[in-house]
Amino acid sequence: MNRRFSTSVSLMFREFAMPERFAQAKAAGFEGVEIQFLAEGDRAEMATAAAAAGIGVTLINVDMGDYMAGGTGLSGVPGREAMFRNEFASALDAAEVLGARFVHLGPSRVPTGVDRIACLDTYRRNIDHAVAAAAQRSSTARLLVEPMNRVDAPDALINDIDDGAALIRAAYEGVIGLQFDIYHVAMNGHDPVEAYAHHRDIAAHVQFSDIPGRQPPGDGTLDFAGIFAGIESHGYDGLFGAEYMPRQPTLETLGWMQRLA
């Protein structure tokens, strides 16, 4: 078995300054990094740090606005189209500088008093804009949609893996990829292996953390050895992206890597 992992340097390795996280991730055995919060660092500095460490940037996020603070976010919010499009352009710039493989378009919530259908219409228009803008710039980064879960984000616009997959299949198959987060899938009560099997044709990248509460593997309830093997049996051969929130220094939480690699 030669399973490969990427790590979020936004959620993990936070005991180090951002430029140091890339070398620390590489030394720990990760083959890629993910940057959820681009504003935390200087893009050129991060690109230099990644290159010096010899580690690739697997994924970046379009800035989510106020989503992480409990706000509505940007991607599917009527009236915030210009904000989303500005942040998407900025993310494309960052993807070029960092050599990112994937760009996650970011989640949003349905604002109080706003119809969900109106939000979905806005979301689709923003996706259409993103696809066209990326094509115009000949971007090599693949755009991704990631469904959230109904437990942590009941008001999220896309909060189930089946809904996200249906949206992609309706209009964006072959253009937009599905970001398959084992955590969100399991929090909704789905079997991650069965869900992956249903959506493997559009799943582009797999992330993970244990449930509940985005814990390291082994600290929660999920059988990651079985889940990873099951997903691989359905053809996945990409990096598995660790995206958990350590409650102690990250290097002290990595015992799972040897067990699961």
Task: Outline the structure in words.
The chain is an alpha/beta fold and 261 residues long. Helix content is 39%, strand content 14%. The chain has one domain (35-236): Divalent-metal-dependent TIM barrel enzymes (TIM Barrel, Alpha-Beta Barrel), CATH 3.20.20.150. The protein has 9 helices and 8 strands. Strands 1-2-3-4-5-6-7-8 form an 8-stranded parallel β-barrel, surrounded by 4 helices. α4 (116-136) links the parallel β4 and β5. α1 packs parallel to α2, α3 (81-98) runs parallel beside α4 and α7 (192-199) runs parallel beside α8. The N and C termini lie close together (7 Å). The model has no long low-confidence stretch (mean pLDDT 97).
The fold-level CATH name is TIM Barrel
Number of strands: 8
From the helix content, strand content and strand pairing, which structural class follows? alpha/beta
Q: How are the strands of the biggest sheet laid out side by side?
A: 1-2-3-4-5-6-7-8
Low-confidence stretches: none
CATH level-4 homologous superfamily: Divalent-metal-dependent TIM barrel enzymes
The radius of gyration over CA amounts to: 17 Å
Distance between the termini: 7 Å
The biggest sheet amounts to: 8 strands, parallel, barrel
Order of helices and strands: EHEHEHEHEHEHHEHEH
* Helix fraction bin: 25-40%
Domains (count): 1
Strand content: 5-15%
Mean pLDDT: 97
| DSSP summary: helix tally | 9
Gross CATH architecture: Alpha-Beta Barrel
Q: What global shape is seen?
A: globular
Supply the CATH class.
Alpha Beta
